[in-house]
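Re: that backbone. Tokens:
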């Protein structure tokens, strides 16, 4: 490390702000969402009462895949892994009583990100909140869906068009909104190494930036609104070093490769979540310890916001009690440990600096390999990135099964006891209520107005105009997630792999 480098100075290895948490703590977000909008709204208001400083919305699989709650393929999945949002009416209910000009919201949504952001902006307007006052993040990271997760709709290239259209529109309409959260989290959950998480995430970032530049946007117009989402895994020192390496490599890429001049374009701002894949159904109370250490690594690594997993998430959605305990974990780290009083407190440690250098070097070499293949889209289309992750996941699992990698309660220190804790149970009646809601929305709107708005969206998809105003118009005409997605499917088709 350059001994003259300080926190808040290029290349931001030691943090993006000089004082880091001394002047402002990270945003404490608790990822939540289940059942109907009413049920999730109650959970959000509870978490805000308990001290969360930002919302983080989980959507169910039908919403993520562009299906309404009454679609035949949605049966049994409505509200299961997140909240069901099929229309503007659902979004208004979800956000009811929440002051959107004062609360920052993160939405984990990708294929239908443009639609959900449209609903959010319209719901805010109906509250009397101007788009210029909205703060938050939409994940909007479709490339990692092809790599690691699978909730895609369209082929990669038209999906990239939607993303760049959102970039351009949001810079005018919601200028304080982070228009993408480029996610390494799911890449790591799929089994990548720490260095691969950095490499593939930044390679995806390069693809988005190149697409935006090709669409005529200026790097310093959209660069400051790019954000990232990383996993905080088990290897404590390696994870701290990973965050530092990612920041440094990104700053160099933005300055040297893309010619960014605005300092905010060079700053890698990231949300972290503790590693769901490390949680065990065996001895679930032990997950509190895992989560605490992973959260501490994210903080020592300089995260801008953080979600801590519930102890019971290997068994079910978190109960209210587990969600509160996870939040209290962050609050103890913030207010009782003293680790917030020094920016990059482990900087200068021989181990941390060596790990930081090694991860940066390995990630840069992988990015160069991807460049040589023709870029990220080509590396995805050939399956190269997916194969690298699969190989790393296989090797990690092999070590667990061979006993070379210890997992407490799984391959060592077993007790033979059952889980023994209460778990969350979703009321099956919620799905029926949600199906009735979306049908009521269709019945109560002007069918002609909605149909005309959807037709104009299809026509726009066939041309080159920005799609966001057409998506906004369809959303305002009470068109549903499924209908808006299908209007674009007509032109773009569906991706299958």
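Recovered sequence:
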């Amino acid at each position: 490390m350059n001994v003259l480098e300080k926190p808040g100075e290029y290349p931001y290895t030691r943090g993006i702000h000089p004082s880091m948490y001394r002047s402002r703590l990270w945003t404490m977000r608790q990822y939540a969402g289940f059942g109907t909008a009413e049920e999730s709204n109650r959970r959000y208001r509870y978490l805000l009462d308990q001290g969360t400083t930002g919302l983080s919305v989980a959507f169910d699989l039908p919403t993520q895949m562009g299906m309404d709650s009454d679609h035949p393929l949605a049966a049994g999945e409505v509200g299961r892994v997140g909240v069901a949002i099929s229309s503007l009416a659902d979004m208004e209910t979800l956000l009811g009583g929440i002051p959107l000009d004062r609360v920052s919201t993160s939405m984990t949504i990708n294929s239908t990100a443009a639609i959900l952001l449209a609903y959010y902006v319209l719901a805010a307007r109906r509250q009397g909140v101007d788009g210029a006052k909205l703060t938050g993040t939409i994940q909007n990271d479709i490339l990692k869906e092809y790599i690691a997760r699978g909730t895609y709709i369209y082929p990669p290239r038209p999906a990239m068009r939607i993303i760049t259209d959102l970039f351009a529109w949001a810079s005018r309409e919601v200028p304080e909104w982070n228009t993408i959260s480029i996610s390494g989290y799911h890449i790591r959950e799929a089994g990548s190494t720490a260095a691969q998480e950095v490499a593939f995430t930044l390679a995806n970032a390069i693809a988005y930036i190149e697409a935006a530049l090709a669409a005529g946007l200026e790097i310093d117009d959209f660069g400051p609104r790019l954000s990232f989402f990383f996993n905080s895994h088990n290897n404590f020192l390696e994870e701290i070093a990973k965050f530092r390496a990612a920041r440094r490599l990104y700053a160099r890429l933005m300055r040297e490769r893309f010619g960014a001049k605005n300092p905010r374009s060079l700053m890698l701002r990231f949300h972290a979540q503790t590693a769901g894949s490390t949680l065990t159904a065996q001895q679930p109370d032990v997950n509190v310890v895992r989560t605490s250490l992973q959260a501490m690594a994210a903080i020592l690594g300089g995260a801008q916001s953080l979600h801590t997993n519930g102890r019971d998430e290997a068994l079910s959605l978190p109960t209210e009690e587990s969600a509160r305990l996870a939040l209290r974990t962050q609050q103890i780290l913030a207010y009782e440990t003293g680790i917030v009083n020094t920016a990059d407190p482990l900087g200068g440690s021989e181990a941390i600096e060596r790990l930081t250098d090694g991860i940066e070097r390995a990630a840069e070499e992988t990015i160069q390999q991807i460049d040589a293949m023709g870029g990220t889209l080509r590396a995805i289309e050939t399956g190269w990135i997916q194969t690298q992750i699969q190989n790393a996941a296989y090797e990690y699992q092999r070590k667990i099964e061979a006993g070379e990698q210890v997992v407490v309660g799984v391959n060592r220190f077993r007790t033979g006891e059952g889980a023994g804790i209460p778990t969350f149970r979703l009321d099956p009646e919620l799905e029926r209520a949600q199906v009735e809601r979306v049908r009521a929305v269709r019945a109560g709107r002007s069918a002609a107005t909605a149909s005309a708005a959807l037709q104009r969206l299809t026509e726009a998809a066939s041309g080159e105009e920005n799609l966001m105003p057409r998506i906004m118009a369809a959303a305002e005409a009470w068109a549903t997630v499924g209908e808006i997605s299908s209007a674009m499917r007509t032109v773009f088709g569906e991706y299958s792999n």
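The two ends are 43 Å apart (CA to CA). Residues 446-491 form one domain.
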